[in-house]
Structure formats: structure tokens, C-alpha cells
Amino acid sequence: MSKKTNRARRRYTTPRLSATQRVQPSADNPQPGPAPTARPTVAAVRDLREEYRYVASDLKRVAIIAAVMLLVMGVLAILLL
After folding, report:
1. HSE-up (13 A, CA, CB side) for residue 14
2. d(Cα 63, Cα 57) in Å, to the nearest integer?
3. Which domain holds residue 65?
4. Quick check: 53 pLDDT over 90?
């Protein structure tokens, strides 16, 4: 049996909010949005392609293995029923 505590339980209390969380957005008080991000340069994209060139071959290999396993399970299900 669990031990009873003397603390009073708080039910249906309002959450504690910071000053910035209490501000309601309105037309005269707009919230700042995320800063616009710069597009990656062509060199950065080429860098990523060179760095992750193995990913496509790995995905193909995983897809082939998954298809073979699914085929084997289907054949086994037909043979064992």
C-alpha cells in the first residue's frame, strides 16, 4: 500500500507561464517569425553528394533484402498452410 502524503493535491490549476508566454499575438503586437534561411550554395550541395554517395546504394540493398525476405515468408506461409 502506498504511503499517504500530507500535501494537498492541486487540481485544475492554471499553468505557470513566463512573461513571454503570457503575451497574446495581435495585429499591433506581431510575434517575430523564424529568420529566413539562406539557400545552400552549389558547392555545399556537391559536398553533401560526395559525402553521402553510398546512401543510395545502401537503400537499394536494403530494399532488395526486404523484398527477398517478404517473398520467402510468403512462400513459407503457402507451403506450411
Report:
1. 4
2. 10
3. 56-81
4. no
pLDDT of residue 74: 96
pLDDT of residue 8: 63
* The pLDDT value given to residue 42: 72
- Classified as helix, coil or strand, 76 is helix
Specify the number of domains making up the chain.
1
In a domain, 69, yes or no: yes
The pLDDT score that the predictor gives to residue 6 is 66
Q: pLDDT category, 52, cuts 50, 70, 90?
A: confident
Residue 9 in any domain: the answer is no
What is the rounded CA–CA span in Å between residue 58 and residue 50?
Answer: 15
What is the DSSP track for 3-64?
Answer: PP--SPPP-SPPPP--HHHHPPP-SSSPPP-PPPPPPPPHHHHHHHHHHTTHHHHHHHHHHH
